[in-house]
Amino acid sequence: MLLKLDEMSKGETGLIKRVEGEGKFRRRLFDMGVTPGAEVYLRKKAPLGDPIEITIRGYELSLRKAEASLVLVEVSERDGDK
Q1: Rounded to an integer, what distance in angstroms lies between the CA atom of residue 25 and that of residue 56?
Q2: How many independent structural domains does the chain possess?
Q3: What is the pTM of this model?
Q4: Sign of the torsion angle spanned by Cα atoms 38, 44, 48, 51
Q5: pLDDT for 31-73, tens place per residue?
Q6: Domain limits at 52?
Q7: DSSP secondary structure string, the chain?
Q8: Which of 7, 22, 53, 82 is the least crowded, having the fewest Cβ atoms under 10 Å away?
């Protein structure tokens, strides 16, 4: 199932499939290691959804909701899918 990173639930793991956006935003995400093929784990989500904290490539990273919405992730199985 493909979801945007900001739509994932706390504790979910997925594989980054695509990074959308243009210019500075996209380049900034790539520079931080948010690239297709990387595994991502959603650690924490602020009460209003901004920011979110993920684990990627062995380190913790905080992203704004606007940045996270540019990242498409394949989540293998959600609680509702079991």
Answers
A1: 18
A2: 1
A3: 0.83
A4: negative
A5: 989 999 999 999 999 988 789 999 999 999 999 998 999 999 9
A6: 2-76
A7: -EEEGGGPPTT-EEEEEEE---HHHHHHHHHTT--TT-EEEEEEE-TTS-SEEEEETTEEEEE-HHHHTTEEEEES--GGG-
A8: 82
